[in-house]
Amino acid sequence: MQLYKDQTLRIHNSLTGKKDVFEPINEGHVGMYVCGPTVYSNVHLGNCRTFMSFDMIFRYFKHLGYKVRYVRNITDAGHLENDADEGEDKIAKKAKLEQIEPMEVVQRYTVDFHNTLQQFNLLPPSIEPTATGHIIEQIEIIKEILEKGLAYEANGSVYFDVIKFNENHDYGKLSGRKLEDMITNTRELTAQDEKRNPQDFALWKKAEPQHIMRWPSPWGDGFPGWHLECTAMSTKYLGENFDIHGGGMDLKFPHHECEIAQAEASTGKSPVNYWMHANMLTLNGRKMSKSTDNNIYPAEIFSGNNNILSKPYTPAVVRFFMMQAHYTSILDLSDDALQASEKGYNRLMEALDNVDKLKTSGKSDFDVKAWQQKCYEAMNDDFNTPILIAQLFEAVKHINLIKEDNETISAEDKDLLASSLKAFVYDVLGIENQSLTKDDSNTLNGVMELLIDIRNEARAKKDFATSDKIRDQLVELGIQIKDGKDGTTFSVN
Ligand SMILES: [Zn+2]
After folding, report:
1. Residues 48-67: what's their mean pLDDT?
2. 254: preceding bond cis by omega (within 30 degrees)
3. Where do the Cysteinyl-tRNA synthetase class Ia DALR domain residues begin and end (predicted)?
């Protein structure tokens, strides 16, 4: 269904600083690029929030009937410490520390990234390209920028000439910075510096002999600059001009500003029509940071194995909590906030379980069509999920009133209410009904208790054929039983 034909979607565009009406380049199609993770450590909860925000955006476009090509990269080379042009590659550093290959680091943390996002019910992107898989494309872009005279080679490295670029372009237009201010606020270059100006950034870095991640290039062995990979991969899969580019707020400068400069320098075109930035997550009112211990990983929230929260929370509750804030607002995670979200989540799931069972009558006390339009208005206003969720609870209130015979609903309205509610909760917000899985695990526990009892009785009667059969067949199903001093327990692989 091409719902988008009836909806006017506005997107807060960081480039214009206002909410712009979304007009895709190709009717019915959306091209969206989001900066993915640098895979050198377990994925951070703050990063999960960013990817969840763009997952919701991806889902809403799909819900509206757009064909979406969503590209989200994996940074597996070129990202140096402190996001700077000097220092160690984050992945190579970790590899040295753990005495493994850089690609083992990449593999380990890519798997962690995918597993975690899957637990949060994120849809996979349409394409997930890697920086190391696009070295040739990156070298080609550097050649083009050199040909235009907007980059220069120095001692085997290639730098982007920001001052020269700024003569005919506006460096700083995305982040709202002025080049003159940047120049007065930075340190002078020293004689050893290869850069002509401190604002210049690396397109290609010469690899020192000890640098493990290196590729041949026209300028000698080296590796690409971090900003370049996103220009190469977005252009390759979405074209020189595409609809949406997203990422965390912290990437606006210099990363995204440099992406614009590289693309404009090489193609002469503005690469992106709508720049979107998702805001950060704080923990108990403070910035999350590994060094201050004000930090929590997704797995620690799900298991309850942490010193910050009073109990475990399911991925669906955490996702619901995240969706209760607008993606451009700072969101603070705390035990109180998660407890409140858990209550809200349970009420919503209960209503979803009840909506199909509602009795119908000739007329409706609840104007479902008007309610549905308000839900769309919320989403069309720059993906305003908190307003959408407030509307969903408006529906919950009516479902409960109808259930208690204090209101009535017609059969037609009931169908519309049920299908819209499910579409917004499951398809758009991506919130799973895990109360169903809770029932499943209760059933499993019951069946396992019964099997363990039968096995123990068989063993007491020295009927080892039966007890071994139960154990062996469970192993085949991926269930291990373990006899301990406190009785028999089981675990599912
Ligand atoms: Zn990027």
Report:
1. 98
2. yes
3. 374-440
